[in-house]
Amino acid sequence: MAFIDWVLHPTELWAAFWFFMRHAPPDEKTVKLQVSGDMKRCYDFLEMTSRSFAAVIQELNPKLRDGICLFYLVLRGLDTIEDDMTIPGARKRHLLETFHEIIYQKGWTFKESGPDEKDALLLVEFDIVINEFLRLPTEFQDVIADITRRMGAGMAKYTRARVESLEDYNEYCHYAAGLVGHGLSRLFAVSGLEDKSVGEQLELANSMGLFLQKTNITRDINEDVLDGRCFWPKAVWSKYADSEEHLIDRENRDKGMEALNEMCTNVLQHIPDVLEYLNQIQEPSVFRFCAIPQVMAIATIVLCYDNSRVLDGNVKIRKGEALKLISQATTLDNVKRTFYRYIEQLERKNQPDNPMHNQVAKIIDRTKKDIARTLKGGAPVDFTKEYLVLILFFFTITTFFYSYLTEKSSF
Ligand code: IN0
């Protein structure tokens, strides 16, 4: 993150300072220290697959921590096989459809991953994950195996089917992420840390997954098309381009932007379910585990809206912004304030001449009303600008005063 970014976003600098104060080693080490052998190796894998999210999983309540760490690694294993374009179709489908049995096979490892698979090591030493999986309480194993079976079958189907209609799009995202919401919600309930109704409200849990998956798919269009795959539904992009390549082509940029904005609008429809799901969660470490990816997603999708850079390469939110979001995802009210702030940012980006303007404006109005109605103290007022002016004011006063004093003393 460039120096200027920190100067222009002092609240993020503050958040970064706090984050590093709180996460300065050896605290993470203490968690690892408490676990030994294969489970310690599993936390190493977690660090390798996603550094920032690994910390959030390690802060989970001990009743859930190892179970969710292993669920995450099993899903990352499945994901690595699905993403691997070097594995022949039939072999890949067989692996995806039987992965829910493979996780019970002690000693199973996989050394056929392609050279560009960043999590290939996880599969090379997957026998370690299986050892720890088999040590989990059976009710945890049953949930993880059930979700792995249904996700594997769904992914296998879409290795030979394309995402044509909006129904296909919702179905694919259900298999890839909605089912993760189902599995996590059932583990939260089985652990006793959340009410058992959380394990039943699976429509809300599905929306939690769809909000994340659709944000990733919308953001990664350039990278996916260049890799020869596309998860944007044809029913959407074919209105604006003759092919996936034409969609990201600079020659066709205006139409490409209309397609991008329609995809961003599709993601926003899941916001009410996301806030309603988070409203159920009582245990603080579970709440943060669920809320952090959601606030990252709202920041990412607002960044993608009407942003031509998405079609040219992948865009990411600033590191400082991510740390600020993590530090503020503590309570439902704070998360609502964060969503409200980004919805206001979206409102500023939603130009009247944008074909999606009216549809997006409706979602903005409804979301702001819903949040303002349920938030203590009503609609949040963003004082950042006021702070900045104040800081600037004091800065000029002190410099003026200082130069006046130095001048007076030089006489
Ligand atoms: C996740 C989700 C996740 C967390 C909490 C509640 C969820 C409810 C429903 C669905 C998913 C839920 O969070 C992670 C976040 C993550 O890994 N972020 C990465 C960034 C990234 O893009 O990889 C990071 O480095 O911060 C997530 O994105 N997915 C995930 C996978 C497994 C589990 Cl157990 C939980 C991936 C996906 C595809 C969205 C489901």
Uncertain residue ranges: none
Strand content: under 5%
* CATH homologous superfamily (4th level) name of the largest domain: Farnesyl Diphosphate Synthase
Number of domains: 2
The first-to-last residue Cα distance is 44 Å
Transmembrane segments: 387-405
Main location: membrane
Enzyme class: transferase
GO biological process, one term: sterol biosynthetic process
Name the descriptors.
411 residues, mainly alpha, Farnesyl Diphosphate Synthase, 2 domains, binds ligand IN0
What does it look like?
- The chain is mainly alpha-helical and 411 residues long.
- The chain has two domains: 22-161, Farnesyl Diphosphate Synthase, CATH 1.10.600; 166-377, Farnesyl Diphosphate Synthase (Orthogonal Bundle), CATH 1.10.600.
- It is 74% helix and 0% strand.
- The chain has helices spanning 3-8, 10-23, 27-34, 37-49, 51-58, 62-83, 89-102, 120-124, 126-133, 138-160, 166-190, 202-219, 221-226, 234-237, 244-248, 253-268, 271-280, 284-304, 309-312, 319-328, 332-349, 357-374, 384-410.
- Residues 50, 52-53, 68, 71-72, 75, 176-177, 180-181, 184, 208-209, 212-213, 216, 289-290, 293 line the site of ligand IN0.
